[in-house]
Design a protein that fits this description.
By secondary structure, the protein is of the alpha/beta class. It has eleven helices and 13 strands.
Length: 339
């Protein structure tokens, strides 16, 4: 298929683009490069554009004869979403509505949406299943849940077949360590710890050591980027037969902050300073997934579930790219034409 990958120059999008190309599809990347990296896209055409630009979206969908769309173009920082909620609703919700409108206008009816475990908020029980009540506690999670609801109602009209994939913690470097995480600023745990191991930051902060967990630190569910992308491919292949798919994507096994720190130390052979700090508001002690539904309906099984494998691929990428991708002069967001 010819597939438009929105946000395809970012961490997950670039790995997905590479997998699509390897599987014989024709991916076309659509990215404003405000967060993504042009050099991460080596297997596809890239169109520099913004999802607010309805006319460019329609033009692209028509000219490239796009048959399906994948969406990885959301803002993802929880703290920033609390400080700037309108920014998050504009990009994550309004721009996705704009994209779906362009798809509807051009007859493109297949959509794979990158959602998040943040739609569950602070669940009372774990592991989390898809039926767990949706109670997001920040604009980031709420904007993703609003998109899921929009897709649900649009699918009821018969004009959209979609999959919403709720991630837990994507990590590692894909394509044998070729494509890694380079967020600016970085907020994800494994890259932050690796940066400390490389001497790129003075320490690693552990927020909370008195949780009701075996070592007192938070436990989270991690999933290797390659496993994550394979699940998207399986969901894409099922869109012909299913108008609505919703899946959790995680390993189902949690690792504590201390376990992640010790794994990075073991893989890297480096020691570094660890600083204990107070809990952050809104951080639950344990968040793990139940991905039984994805395993049953998609035949998806994580092939790299071991924390050491995830960390080792990330370590390799960061050692090869100590300053991140070599495109710090990233192009600014394009001004957009609006309807």
């Amino acid at each position: 298929m010819k597939i438009l990958v929105c946000g395809g120059a970012g961490y997950i999008g670039s790995n997905m683009t590479a997998l699509l190309a390897a599987e014989g599809h024709t991916p076309v990347v659509f990215d404003n490069l405000s967060k993504g990296h042009r050099v991460a896209v080596q297997d596809a055409e890239i169109i520099i554009g913004d999802l607010a630009d309805y006319d460019l979206l329609v033009e692209t969908l028509k000219a490239r004869q796009i048959e399906a769309v994948m969406h990885f173009a959301a803002w993802i920082e929880v703290g920033e979403s609390v400080a700037e909620p309108l920014k998050y609703y504009r990009n994550n919700f309004s721009n996705t509505q704009n994209l779906l409108s362009a798809m509807e206008a051009t007859g493109v009816g297949k959509f794979v949406f990158s959602s998040t475990a943040a739609v569950y908020g602070m669940p009372r029980t774990v592991p989390i299943v898809e039926e767990t009540p949706k109670a997001p506690i920040n604009p980031y999670g709420h904007s993703k849940w609003a998109v899921e609801q929009m897709c649900h109602y649009l699918s009821q009209t018969g004009r959209l077949n979609y999959a919403a994939l709720r991630y837990f913690n994507a990590c590692g470097a894909g394509s044998d360590g070729a494509r890694g995480e380079d967020h600016r600023p970085e907020s994800h745990l494994i890259p932050l710890i690796i940066q400390a191991a490389l001497g790129r930051r003075p320490d690693v902060k552990v927020f909370g050591t008195d949780y009701e967990t075996p070592d007192g630190t938070c436990i989270r569910d991690y999933i290797h980027i390659d496993d994550l992308c394979r699940a998207h491919l399986l969901a894409l292949n099922k869109l012909d037969d299913c108008d609505e798919q919703v899946y959790n994507l995680g390993n189902g096994q949690g690792y504590s902050v201390r376990e992640v720190i010790e794994t990075v130390k073991r893989v890297s052979g480096k020691d570094f300073k660890v600083v204990e700090a107070d809990r952050r508001p809104g951080d639950p002690g344990i968040l793990t997934s139940d991905a039984t539904k994805a395993r049953r309906e998609l035949g998806w099984v994580p092939e790299k579930p071991e924390l050491e494998t995830m960390v080792a691929t990330a370590w390799k990428w960061h050692c090869d790219h100590p300053d991140g991708y070599p495109d710090r002069g990233r192009e600014p967001e394009k001004k957009t034409r609006r309807r």
